[in-house]
Amino acid sequence: MLERVIEVVGTLGYLGIAALMFLETVVPPIPSEAIMPLAGVAAAQGKLNLLGVVVSGTIGALLGNLLWYYLGRRIGPKRLGRWADRYGRWFGLSARSVDTAQLWFARYGAAAVFLCRMVPGIRTWISLPAGAAGMSLVPFLLCSALGTLLWTALLAWTGLLLENNYRLAEQQLGPLSAVAFGGLLFLIVLWKFRRKNSAP
């Protein structure tokens, strides 16, 4: 099962990875914690280049971050909470997530944009208060790009480790190992979906 998923990621190529990361940022259907490690596995197997995987994942996520940034600028700080209450459920967003992101931004400013790119749960939503507060575009892009680059590189590197462990287990346990790893991956993704859906 895992091998098939990796093959799909490898077939989609860099454009596909960028598109998936863009979608994950805009309407999180698949967590980046699933996309980038599998892309890293594909790179370890020679189907993709690791640098290309990291760059394409970063670009895709950055484009999604820009969308939320400009939406935040349009909405403004006063209407941000009301907008999240009214429309947030369509994007897996809650007013609580926006409040948390606003607190981070109010406390740490531009540093929050960098740091939050590596914090699950508010990684995407920090763009809204940054835009609503009128943060300049260049610092926003710089902080977002650096934080996202580190995050995607870490996840892709995790994929490299997963590939090595996967091959070792496959040699020792045969076909049963593929089923076990596939089941584990499925449970991780399922847990992530349930966690997002149960968020208030």
UniProtKB/TrEMBL annotation:
Compartments reported by the entry: Cell membrane
Keywords: Cell membrane, Membrane, Transmembrane, Transmembrane helix
Cross-referenced InterPro entries: DedA_domain (IPR051311), VTT_dom (IPR032816)
Main location: membrane
Lipid bilayer topology: Multi-pass membrane protein
Top-level division of the source organism's lineage: Bacteria
A GO CC annotation given for this chain: plasma membrane
Pfam family name, one: VTT_dom
TM annotation in the entry: 12-30, 50-71, 137-160, 172-191
Start and end residues of each VTT domain: 30-159
Family the UniProt entry places it in: Belongs to the DedA family.
Protein name: Glr0555 protein
Species name: Gloeobacter violaceus (strain ATCC 29082 / PCC 7421)
